[in-house]
Amino acid sequence: MGMDFTLYGAAGSGSVPVEAALRLIGLDYQVVEAPTWEGEAERAKVAAVNPMRQVPALITPAGEVITESAAILIWLADSHPQARLAPTLDDRRRAQFLRWMSFIPAAVYSMFWVRDEPSRLVGADPKAQAEIQQRTADRIADCWRMMDSQITPGRFLLGEEITVLDLYVAVASRWTPRRRRFYAEAPGMAPVVRRVDALPALQDFWAERFPFDDGWEG
Ligand SMILES: N[C@@H](CCC(=O)N[C@@H](CS)C(=O)NCC(=O)O)C(=O)O
């Protein structure tokens, strides 16, 4: 099979759950590596396909560009129903699936636009920047706690079957304030993300794209 999908992404980034979904579905893809948070040169690589200059951005075999991690994950799952990575439209879990798939980018992921470069909001003042880092980390922790209070996982977040929501939360929960705090704030979801970390089908993938290096839990 040819390289049908092209994904602009980076190790450890929001492209990782998308890459994991592509792997689980069994689709062939290539990654254009662009760690955008490292600076202008990396962001410029993405500008041609995504004027937001962010990853992930997926180019489909038909040449369509899809940005926004949640949209990409939902679209991939819905258009490959045989992989069973999302509740279908008539499934009673669909509403909660969409709820949490929207919550992650709106409440959690959006904080990283500020965290990655606090000067975007507060200029060069180091004290204000440190405050931004602290407050956004606390806000993310609060969001995980609120989500945990509203969800009753089974083996996975929505029940017994893995969905792209599990991939998304497993990756996003490794970012600041990182897993140790996530386990404390979200004890109900903690066993689920550990289960996703341990999925045999993804062991080589995690090692390549988001390794569990010493001290990774924070
Ligand atoms: N809303 C976007 C956010 C994507 C995003 O923030 N990506 C980060 C990398 S993990 C990025 O490219 N940051 C560079 C920037 O915002 O300038 C999504 O959900 O895909």
From TrEMBL:
Family annotation (InterPro entries): Glutathione-S-Trfase_C_sf, Glutathione_S-Trfase, Glutathione_S-Trfase_N, Thioredoxin-like_sf
Pfam families per the UniProt record, alphabetical: GST_N_2 (PF13409)
Organism domain of life: Bacteria
Chain ranges of the GST N-terminal domain: 3-84
PANTHER family, sorted: GLUTATHIONE S-TRANSFERASE GSTA, GLUTATHIONE S-TRANSFERASE-RELATED
Protein known as: Glutathione S-transferase family protein
Species name: Brevundimonas guildfordensis
